[in-house]
Amino acid sequence: MTLTVGKNETSGDDGGEPELVVKCSVLGGFSESDEIRALIASLPEISENAATKEVATEKFLVIMDRYQEQPHLLDPHLEWMMNMLLDIARNEKSPPPLLHLGFKFLYIISKVRGYKIFMQLFPHEVVDVHPVLDLLSRQNPKDPEIWETRYMLLLWLSMTCLIPFDLSRLDGHLDSVSGQAREPTMDRILAIVKTYLTVTDSCRYAAAVLVSKFMTRPDVKKKHLADFLDWSLTTIMQADEKLMIDLVVMDGTLQSLAQLFKHGKRDDFLQHAPTVLQCLDQKHLLESNHEMLRKLGVKLIQRLGLTFLKPRLAKWRYQRGSRSLAANLSMAQSTPGSETPGTPDVEMRDQEEDYDIPEEVETVIEQLLVGLKDTETIVRWSAAKGIGRVTGRLPKELADEVVESVLACFSFQETDNAWHGGCLALAELGRRGLLLPSRLANVVPLILKALTYDEKRGACSVGSNVRDAACYVCWAFARAYEPPELTPFVSQIASALLITTVFDRSVNCRRAASAAFQENVGRQGTFPHGIDIVTTADYFAVGNISNCYLTISVYIASFPDYTQAMIDHLIAMKINHWNDEIRDLATKALHNLTPQAPEYMASVLPQLLQSTTSSDLHGRHGAILAFAEITHALYKLGADVNRPVTDVIPAGCLEGFKGIHKTLLDKKQYRSFSGELMRPAMCSLIEKMSLSKMPLKDDPVIEGWQWLIDDTLKSLHLMSSRTRDVVRDSAIGALAALCEEYYQVGPGQADPRIQDLLVSQYVAGLKSPEVLTRSSSALALGCLPKCMARTRLQQILESLGGACVAGQKEVSFTEGRRDAVRAIAQLCVKVGVSAQGTPDSVICSGNIGQVYRPLLHSMGDYTTDSRGDVGSWVREAAMTSLMEVTLLVVSTAPELLAPDLVERMMCCIVQQAAEKIDRYRAHAGMVFLRLLHCSDPAVPHIHHREELLSIFPVETGTTLNWNASSHAFPYITQLLGLEHYRYHTLLGLTVSVGGLTSSTVRFSSQSLFEHLKGIQQDSTALGHFGDALLKVFKDNLRHDRVSIPLLKMLDMILSNNCFEVFATQEDHPFCVDLLALCKEEIKRSMSMQKLPSCIAVFCGLIQFRGPVRKLVLSQLLVLLGHGLFAVRKETAGQMYEMLLTYDDVVDAEVLDEAMTLLSDTNWENDLATVRTFRNQLSDMLGVPRPQLVAKSPA
């Protein structure tokens, strides 16, 4: 089944929310029946060929797997498929490969439909017994290739055991033709059973099914049941769990016993049940190290318990009406006055308790209760089902004792396994009506605790399975009880389920709680505002935890029934949670919930203040954050009605939060790991208190807060890399708010002393030897409010500009340069732009160059280290800053932008948009289109604006996927036709076309060649392109980042004959200049990255006519005598291909001899030998022999 979820963005005229669209691909029937019929019919022809057999099997498997979710669609077709495949098995002439292939197809069908249903279609007449038995006897139980054949034959044999005739009647005369006695059919089947119960493959499970059908026959159980049970118990007792083969034997034997006690008659097995139970007790299966043995032990024990008890349903059980809602509604309409179906039948109570309960039942229940606490879920689940089944046959008093024992699992001395098992057992008891309404008062509080169960274990927690199982209990109760029975608990259950729905850490638990709440809304109909909440907190909506905490919780809290419960849960359970993300989301959720209950929120502030000095680190951290968020939310509410924050928060809170910093400092809780949580929490408190305009002007606490911010920014290098960014951002946010609120002596006028101190301190930090100190100092300068930057703007811009430049000693300070670039843009936004302003106060003509120069310089930062291209961080920040500053200037004083400034900016951005890294290409493309399409007002002095708008119309801002090379490069290469952008576009394309990423190389080169193909007939345009190409080469000579990919790109261009127009001209300047540049590039080079590409370029240049060809050949012959043998081999190979391609390079009479010399010479020989052959080749080519040049004395 395919499920597609999307949102329909088109809403109606009522302006409603986007409609959620769910598309399901549900199969309507078995549409491939004809194809399957033809495939099965063709099996005889394809079975001999391994390849065709594999293809047919895979095809059949793919078709059948489509029906895994809807196997019932196969039901009308199962019979004819089975008959066609069984005809193969019944045909004595079928070769073994065909036989096994047919059974393999049968197994695939049974796997999809389920063996219990599929095996019923097997023919089970008397004539089928011996053929199936003979065929199974001929199989090798240890052959791993044909286990499907044995599996299906065992299931078929199981069905043949259902014939109503005594098996001895099938034996006839036991004397065979040879005079030897034949083995009876019954004994043959029993031998097969014992053989296949001990195999290691899936046939063991089919053998257990065979046991359940065979041993329960009247004729077999008289003769062999006791012996088989003795054999089984002996096998179990003698098995050693330390041996793998014995584990397999025990597994098969236990499965067969469980099947026997499930399908056999109680009267036949009751006498054997005590012996089996005693054997299991002695073997201590529930203490085994293997979960499958424990699971089978629990399964067998519950079957023994059901054998001890009479098969009757307890009359005292609680019964609700039909499980079908439609049936319940029709019943309610037809008999509105009938008595409640949940009333127990009192008259039958005495009749059901007239028999004694065997003592063994107590042992069974005890072991099932132990199974509820097992470490594996499959064991606990089996034990829970066993508890439900056995309890359903007990008298009321004994059943109540069982319920009491289950409730004992919900003790905080028990592990999470016991809680989980207890929840599963309660759900089973409730589903079966065995948990009477009188017990709900004891059960519901435990389930509410289970819904919030979360225990810390090391670096993580356990309990998600307990919470999930508790949701299952609530779901089961909704279906088990009438609404009046649950009415007293509706408020508690509804609140707990909604709390789990929106606040649980596990997405599975949130979805389980949402489903349980929805079931209760539908079945009970008493949950407050149920329909409204169900439509909002559905399966898909609760999948995102941030959405749950910050959006859905606000909607649910708008209903007064749930508001206080949600707030209490966040305060009690979530702000002290061990997970950082949960604490952060919880405090933000409290901020959002404050408008729903401001008075109640204000009342919890004193409680939070007490927790801010708690010994629990997580509780202390969450309490500080929560106090800050709630106080800020209360301030905003008070500001709406012109009330100061001191009137909104309780008395004493003002003095209380002022002492938090001193307490933490005195207790040295800003150090080490504790400091990584306390510092950002206190910085958040400082920020929120400043934004809340707390009356703290000239208060000594401000000095302490400033010390904390400064110390935090200086100590970042001492913190773990995981928390540095969070701590730094918190400190920067606190500094900005603190300066804005408390460091002004008048409106827009900063305190000169504080201003000088902070600016000098952070400017000095830009030269720190610690990169994190540089980074934080730059961000601190960028976050300063306008009043703090006034009169010091020139100094700050000059310092930040210097920090953007990577000198010899500053190469490693990449993060510092990145943040300095960001800070320049932030500062410009803060101080604003004014054409007539002064350079020390605003951005104006006097300092606009100071802003743009470092930003444009940073666009060329290609620093690399062990982390890769770290300069890309700086380039990305520079693009963003250029966009922000330019849009700011354009909106206020566009005349400040000089034409050369705009041209350089746009060209730098175009270059980045043509480069190889998808992320930064996409970012550059976004910035470029934003500046190009800006129209209110437009960015001035953009060259070729009309041509650019024709290439990039406005709709490309949303439709063009810059991340995809196949989409972006066809647009980028069109810029090669625009004079002002040609050079920088080609510079960016060079590293893409000559790069390493195959997809980028493929699509960029395709687009480049398409452009060159379009200008082949335009010699002027081709000349401009060639000039730009040579300029790129000349400007980046011996700059490996560009020159190596440029050589690769040149090789591709020449190989595609893109300069064929130039090649027909004698000594074209392009070829001469390119040859000179290539010679200069590889001069004294030993780089095996560069030399092979340059050799390929030389070979491509041979297509140009005139004396330049001789110069190219001379250079190749020089490389043929290079000191590195790898270079010589590469040159010889390339020259051989060159002579094959351009046969006019050498005279026809020496061409074969030259090519033979190139191919047969061992170019790995010593230089003297190699140069001899090289000189011979020089003579053949008519080129002067290369001469050794003596090195000039130093």
UniProtKB/TrEMBL annotation:
Keyword annotations of the record:
Chaperone
Region annotation (Disordered) maps to 328-347
Q: Name one GO cellular component term.
A: adherens junction
The record's GO molecular-function terms, alphabetically, read: beta-tubulin binding; GTPase activator activity
Q: Where is the Tubulin-folding cofactor D C-terminal domain?
A: 904-1090
Q: Name one Pfam family in it.
A: ARM_TBCD
Entry's Gene Ontology BP terms: adherens junction assembly; bicellular tight junction assembly; microtubule cytoskeleton organization; negative regulation of microtubule polymerization; post-chaperonin tubulin folding pathway; tubulin complex assembly
Coiled-coil stretches noted in the UniProt entry, renumbered to this chain: none
InterPro entries, sorted: ARM-like, ARM-type_fold, ARM_TBCD_2nd, TBCD, TBCD_C
Q: Which residues form the Tubulin-folding cofactor D ARM repeats domain?
A: 293-531
Instruction: Spell out the Polar residues composition-biased ranges.
Output: 328-341
The family note in this entry says: Belongs to the TBCD family.
Question: What is the recorded name of this protein?
Answer: Tubulin-specific chaperone D
**What species is given as this protein's source?**
Gadus morhua (Atlantic cod)
